[in-house]
Model the fold of this input.
Amino acid sequence: MRAIFTLFALLMASCAIHLPQPEVEIPSRYIYDLNEAASTSDGAWWYIFNDPVLDSLQRRALAANRDLAAAAERVEQARLSIAVARSAFLPNLNFDIAADLQHTAPTGTEQQYTVGPSISWDLSLFGALRYAQREARAELLSSEWALRGVQLSLTVEMAKAYFTLRQSELSLSIARRSHHLREESAALIDSLFHYGMATGLDADQARSLVYVAASDIEQYTRSRNEAQLSICTLLGIPPQPYTEPAITPLMAELPSAPPEALPSELLQLRPDIMQAHYAVEAAAARVGTARSNRFPSIPLSGSGGRFGAKFKELFSENLWSWSATASLVQPLFSFGRLSRREQIARSAYDESLRQYEQTVLEALEQVESALTTISTTNRQTESYAEYVAANERIAYLTEQLYRIGMSNYLDVISTEQTWYTSQLTLIELMIQQRINYSTLVMALGEGWQGL
Done:
């Protein structure tokens, strides 16, 4: 008996699998860390913008988006797959009704009828069923993280679409206001030209500014409509006019500074990293399954019930029978099929391992890029706001000088156009600031809420 147990232990040791581990060097800190105080994280990260319209859009998108619903169904499928894997540990119980007819010349036709239950059970001595359950569990966890990834991506895309809409609305407002003012200015120049106080060139130049603003109105109207269509898609509704409440003024305050996160935290926070991690676990389980299939298994089966040479004997006579079989099946020679399957599984594991390592590297790069983009864009916006204010003063003074004849209208056009363009650029930068924070949320894998 001891020899049997020794042999069993040796066989178990021979089927143990040794797989390589990830090789990614995680830095101790981010290069472009903003060195702000850490803050608590919050799943509803978009509250950092303090925008009730965005809050409403996010809630509606999470409730009705089709991609998110599809991801939730994939989680449910994975959860059911675990139940399927667990059921393989239990025997199969069936109820059989069979009729056997055999004809030979000497004996004629012989009949045999049986009715009764049957049971079968495959005992896996080397972990094939256990590995199958591990694979199913890893697939479930991977699908759950994929769901979180879809949810995070959805909320970030909604924020970006909303801020793009904000940019289009604000730029459209500036273009319309400028168009109105330019029409008034052009009418004034026409009047001055009529009385000989301005040249025809001045009148044409004033009218050209009106045309530029009119063209910009159409451009930003188109951008606004496209952003509205994107929002409808994210909300899971057919394209329709924007029906949200009037957009609130763009708040001057930016969200609280991002936390002083550690790069290693990405390994537990980023949905794509965790999804890749469990994909590696599933691949490792498949290696174990392929390895276990090369070792013995014990099929057990049994059946019993009533039998008879005629169908009516099943109910009239007390004829009972039963049978049971047990066997040890050891694959001996399969022309390398089983070993090749194990090699394929190991290669697939190595592939998933490299994909995991690449996902980690890309995540680190994305966080670094988002951090430096936030810091540089914030400083750029502050400087540009001063530039816009200076342009406004220059445009006003140039117009006053023209009215008293100390400047030509070409200077008025140049300064007014510079001021107008700089206003649009400032709006773009202010919106980009908020989009940058959304991008950082995506890079970190979750949001934060300032203390």
Summary: Residues 1-15, 36-40 have pLDDT under 50 and may be disordered. Strands lie at 92-104, 108-124, 297-308, 320-326.
